Target: Cocaine esterase
Amino acid sequence: MKRALIRTSVVAAALGASALTSPTSAAPAAPAAAAPAAPAAGSIADGVTNDENPGVPVGASWTEHYFRAAQAGSPTTVTLHADVLRPEGLAPTEKTPVILSVGPYFNHAGQTGQETDEVQPSSRFDDLIDGASLMERGYTVVLVDNRGFGASTGCLDWMGAGEQADVRKAVRWSASRPWSTGKVGMYGKSYDAVTGLWGADLDPRGLEAVVAQEPLWNMYPYLYSNDVPRGNQTGTPLAYNSIASLGGTSGDTDRYNQAAAYEQQHPECLARNLRDNVSNTSQRDPYWALRNQAAKATGARTPLFVTQGFTESNTKPEQMEQYLRNHVGPTRGWLGPWEHVRGNEVDPRTGELSQGRSGFFAEVGRFYDRHLKGIRSAKDPAFAIQDNVGQWRAQRTWPVADTTRAVSIGSGRYVDAGPVEAAVRRGDATGTGLSAAQARRVAELQVPPTTVERRDGDVDQQVRSSLGTAAERADAELSVAGLLPTSYQTWSRPVRQETRVTGTPRVTLTTRGEGQVHVTMWDVDPEAQTATLINENVAELGARGRAFDLKGMDWTLAQGHRMAIGVGTITGGSWRPLPSGRVVTVRDATVRLSTQSTADDVATQGAESPWLARYLEDNTIGSGDLPAGTFRVPTP
Model:
């Protein structure tokens, strides 16, 4: 087990960061070039073991390598850096399969900020190396820095053509080494899970399997929702600019430190990354079409093992269904109600497995053994899925829809007033489209905006419920919101039997009037008189309305429960709304729903995710008096 890193400072989280100091003022300076720290024996070129450097995983021999990657259609050539961890004692040409990860978090100094000044390979996936016993089982681990990060040169480009070229080259390089069997599996979580999906899409020679935990399924929805900017629209590009500006350690070689300083020496890279991500706001822009891995997955055959939290507030299940539908190779997954966590992660509050299911590394090991070594062992479920009551089931694929139908959620109108600012809370309705009395009423009852919780030492910022904390919205009631001029609700009749709503609901609105829209979906318990937010999304409306997807979901409505769907202005959540202040008339609205019977569920092992109770607490409000239902949830 690698020793704990010495943390000297922590840069704000990467994926999910909503604000970050400009890297020109906050980025760590490149350390002065120095001779590498001398280990007890050997050198990095020859292989360094844990006995010689406690920063190397036990049982591994660490070497560094550099290789070139060219960007397709461009004369630009960059040099990529790789840390290679081989089972200790192997001859240089003794062949093993390779587990590869490509991403921005492998700098020797730390993942997202300066954590240590000891020269050593990144500890990001030591949990996999130790937990899956990769060295003992005869795997080589390769950690490759994306261009612009760590000791790889070139400009970072948010999974554009350059970083896609890096993925392809890293796989081919790993497969072609004299110590490689030619079979490569990719592994990652979050950003380096995205590079795994791109590996599957690009299908470079040698790639045989991909494990991707909590990825983005398309790069666009992380910064925008249907042309509405998210709160991290500028914070995330700035966060990655800062990570790219992180220098190496004082013990690293001159070559490493010079390469690690590339982005500091080329500020145009940082400026371009920020400009491109902020100026291209529409998903129709060519910039985003290039970065849509869900669309590019069409026909992909690389075996894939994914994890995804349906209640994720970071890398959300947006376009997951499209990716899995387009990907035609063998696909497996763990899906359920959890946050941005790894399959093996333990909840720090409860000591329980964060996803609730045991044996993640054992299952990952069997997945790699099958596809990289040809070893068939225990048969694991194709998909293990936890529902919102904490029960696990085995399923051949996801989603499984017994019935799909569009239901009418009626017409209505609302004022696109946006969040209530301080002036409105004082009763000043200027520019909101509200009267002073309406503004005061909205100010009294409107749900506060998002709160943010950071987890010390985690590389990912945690964004809690769109509703704020339980204390902040203690007096909020769903039925009251329908009386305000900023939204309206439509209610279903009670479901006749337990009904699972699954897949990706699609909203189609025919509207008049300029503005933005926020659609919310609720599970209403008539007996308890509570409503739980189970899905939502926002969009910029066109001249005649818009059709757009909500998030992927898997939520079971108990018998007798009802669904409520809200349509209105954007009052909170993780968005930067630009309200028009005008009345939006919804002439017609439908939501396409897919449902699944629970009668044929096949149980599999697993406990309730500890996140589920927190999600329910943070996303449940009073329902108030229940109006008559106007539509039926499709019966599976």
The two ends are 49 Å apart (CA to CA). The first strand starts at residue 48 and ends at 49.
